[in-house]
Amino acid sequence: MLTSYEKLSVIQRTGEQFGTVTNLVEKSQMHDKAKVFARITLHPGSKVKLHQHVGRFEVIYILAGIGMVNDNGNIQQIKAGDVIFTDVGESHAIENVGDVDLEYIALVIYT
To answer: What letters, b where the CB count within 10 A reaches 16 and e where it falls short, cover 22-40?
Structure first.
């Protein structure tokens, strides 16, 4: 099944997480196996707060921009091509510290 870009669900975020979430596959299509498969855009200065993954893990692939990740207390710079894996029980946060959008693909899978 093909879904054209124009028909994808796009959610506009405000506040600290200022940017967009483009759902590449709707939750109902993932047969209760995954929570999110989306392209996320964080505008400069925006961030996803530190949060723990309970009952699920997340894989993030950075497409564009520069940011910082807090990976279980280990803070590192991220850039296009980097992959972040957050396992069940682990925590992470992402912040756009650049002056262009930070874009990434996020996949959250239930365990």
So the answer is: ebbbeeeebeeeebbbbbb
